[in-house]
Amino acid sequence: MAETIISSRDLHLYYGKKEALKGINLDIYKGEITAMIGPSGCGKSTYLRSLNRMNDLIPNVTITGSVMYKGKDIYSPKTDTVELRKEIGMVFQQPNPFPFSIYENVVYGLRLKGVNDKQILDKVVEESLKAASVWDDVKDKLHQSALSLSGGQQQRVCIARVLAVDPDIILLDEPTSALDPISSVNQFLKCPKMLAFICANFL
Q1: CA dist list (Å): 119 to 20, 80, 107, 110, 124
Q2: Three-state SS annotation for 149-168
Q3: Which residue ranges make up each domain of the chain?
């Protein structure tokens, strides 16, 4: 039987008084791609954001229940959410590049970790952009603003930014809406070190 990497138990989430997640019990298994498919507003994105505590950034959110990751409840007061989000990365539906160069977007997480060796950064930038299938498009303009790219290219740079920090898990909140779905799935399958992929999509 596959190893459980994330386990949600009796997970409830409220936006104010509105209950958005109702007693979710779900196991995510190592080495698998887990897809959540449903209509708009059914709670897919809310659940994804609950797995790396992105919902903490939304006012008036209340969460009960537990989400276990590596044997610990991520909602424990002892959890370092910055470290958690490095291990459980997220790619959003809409491209959200930082107002920096393409290069600095990709290395942003590494710099937060204290990595400043140019050789290491250059290598990671190339590998991550290749994995995101955008290297050929941007290799000659790495120091131009990421905001100057097309929507699809921006999304691939955002994917590269997540891949650059080598997360254990990637949460995908409809990230291929601006991309070719088949090629996008294939690029994630090329990442053997990932423990799991969790993807939300519309019906």
Answers
A1: 46, 29, 12, 13, 9
A2: CCHHHHHHHHHHHHHHCCCC
A3: 4-201
DSSP 36-86: EE--TTSSHHHHHHHTTTGGGGSTTEEEEEEEEETTEETTSTT--HHHHHH
Contact of 108 with 85, CB cutoff 8 Å: no
pTM, whole model, 2 decimals?
0.81
pLDDT (tens digit, 0 to 9) for every residue of the chain, 203 residues total? 678 999 999 999 999 999 999 999 999 988 777 888 888 888 899 999 999 999 999 999 999 999 999 899 999 999 999 899 989 988 888 889 999 999 999 999 999 889 999 999 999 999 999 988 899 999 999 999 999 999 889 989 998 999 899 888 888 887 655 555 545 555 555 555 555 666 666 54
The topology (CATH level 3) of 4-201 is: Rossmann fold (3.40.50)
Tokens 């008084």 map to which residue?
17
CA distances to 102, 132, 147, 156, 200 from 142, in Å: 5, 14, 12, 13, 30
